[in-house]
Amino acid sequence: MLSELSKILFIIGIVIILIAALIWLFAKTPIGHLPGDIVIRKKNFVFYFPIMTCILLSIILTLVLTLIFRRWQ
Question: How far is CA 28 from each of CA 9, 20, 24, 33, 51, rounded to the nearest angstrom?
């Protein structure tokens, strides 16, 4: 049981490192400003809700984690 937990924690750590590396490499890309993201601008106020970005990241992470966990079974 402990070896399985250590494998899971190791994979989670690798995934976090890869995500951080991708964010660092693609920091200048408009991933946070996709069509469908909600932006409300007033005089001294800006409200930004990246709904399409959240949906896209959710789909990508679901696919990646599904592939990772299918290999373990």
Answer: 30, 14, 9, 11, 19
pLDDT at position 32 over 70: no
Structure tokens at 32: 């946070």
- CA dist 61 and 56 (Å) reads 9
Which residue carries 């690798």 as its tokens?
Answer: 14
Signed CA dihedral, 28, 46, 52, 9: sign only: positive
Q: What percent of the chain has pLDDT over 90?
A: 8
Structure tokens belonging to residue 50: 């990246």
CA distance 14 to 6: 12
Residue 46, SS3? strand
**pLDDT at residue 50, as a whole number:** 85
- Taking the whole predicted model, whether its pTM rises above 0.85 is answered as no
